[in-house]
Prior knowledge:
138 residues, seven-stranded antiparallel sheet, five-stranded antiparallel sheet, 50% strand
Amino acid sequence: METLRLADLDPDEVSQADDERARWLAAFPFTPGAPGETTAPSDDYTVVYNEFEPGARIGSHRDGVDELVYVIEGELAATVDGETATAAAGDLAVVPADAPHAVENVGDGTAKLLGFFASGDFESSFESEPTVLDGDRE
């Protein structure tokens, strides 16, 4: 069994040009060529780790498969298919495939989440494409 310590991830800063609050840290620990990659690649699933400062957000996007979201730390407001709800540390939620969704840190401290996808190969489409601000990855 190979283990991964979240504290050892080296996430990249990501932004969306049309939204000054759309700024977060992202790592895809098992996805070669993605922000924050590690040496444990998988073709069977995708995991994303995100960190947000207070007020920061990921703008609206759709994923081609269901996403299971686990809030590690903080408080988030998630809008899924036009409905907004809050999720806090320890909460687990499902975002259905192809549902437009966005997430924002509405707490006072850093928010952290993990997203799990049951596919290593799917597409996400953003209203405004994200850009990696540091690192060599695209």
